[in-house]
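Notebook entry, structure prediction.
Reason for the run: the old model in the group folder had no record of what sequence produced it. Starting over properly, with the input documented here first.
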Amino acid sequence: MFKRILLAYDGSEPAHKAFDECLEMARRFAAELTIITVVRPPDYADDIGGEFQHELGKLRAQACAAGAASPMVHVRVGNDTAEQIIAAAEECEADLIVTGQRRPARLQRWRSVERTVLKSARCAVLVVR
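New structure, fully documented this time:
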């Protein structure tokens, strides 16, 4: 049974499927849900992660409407996405990290992120296809 679930969200279709899976698990286990997205630091002053703030707000509202407790949402800034995901999981004491699986031809960087999280996380990891 999981008490704290962390969703690594990037706005992709696999991430949406992972979100749906997280909602079901959060309801089933009465677990706390934290949703993060990781953005790279900009070269100049900018609204860091601003494009994701609206999307994360919609996810929070959708989770509440589905009967899950209101999730915490965070935009993390860093060049190493896997490191940011693992650090966030440790900070919120997650029992489970959930991410969507990217298609092989798309964003090889994310596939590397999945492997690193799977190898380095101190908790269970679920990659949703």
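Summary: The longest strand covers residues 32-39.
The old model has been moved to the deprecated folder.
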